[in-house]
Design brief:
The protein has 129 residues and is mainly β. It is 3% helix and 50% strand. It is built from one helix and eleven strands; from the N terminus they run βββββββββαββ. Strands 2, 4, 5, 6, 9, 10 and 11 form a seven-stranded mixed beta sheet that branches. A four-stranded antiparallel beta sheet has the order 1-3-8-7, with no helix packed on it. The radius of gyration is 14 Å and the shape is globular. The N and C termini lie far apart (40 Å).
């Protein structure tokens, strides 16, 4: 079993920056991919970004490309999401996902929340306009 804990959310003005973190603990000897999804009020949980264990491969939603950057620290089993040029539409609860279980790293699977095994409780990011 793997425990997932997000941190770093908060309130920021539009155009500002924020970095959120996700730490995985427990059975972390496996080389897990990790990612972020978000859910705004009244909306479905949507894919934001993902990264392989090696860090060499990443996937970004079109809505955040050029503004968000994912990185990871494998010895610490931690992934970071640097969010710049934040917009009001980025307001959501951000969930960390660990252990991609899809059969292939194609976009259609990586962006599917059903293909991720472990989830955190989420951290709120609010962008004021």
């Amino acid at each position: 079993q793997v425990q997932v804990v997000e941190s770093g959310g908060g309130l920021v003005q539009a155009g500002g920056s924020l970095r959120i973190s996700c730490a995985a603990s427990g059975r972390t000897s496996d080389r897990y991919s990790m990612g972020w999804f978000r859910q705004a009020p009244g909306k479905e949980r949507e894919f934001v970004v993902a990264i392989k264990w090696s860090g060499e491969d990443t996937w970004y939603a079109d809505s955040v490309k050029g503004r968000f950057t994912i990185s990871r620290d494998n010895p610490e089993n931690t992934v970071y999401l640097q969010m710049n040029s934040l917009k009001s539409e980025d307001t959501a609860v951000y969930y960390c996902a660990v252990d991609f279980t899809g059969s292939t790293y194609r976009d259609v699977q990586v962006t599917d929340k059903a293909k991720w095994r472990y989830w955190g409780q989420g951290t709120q990011v609010t962008v004021s306009s």
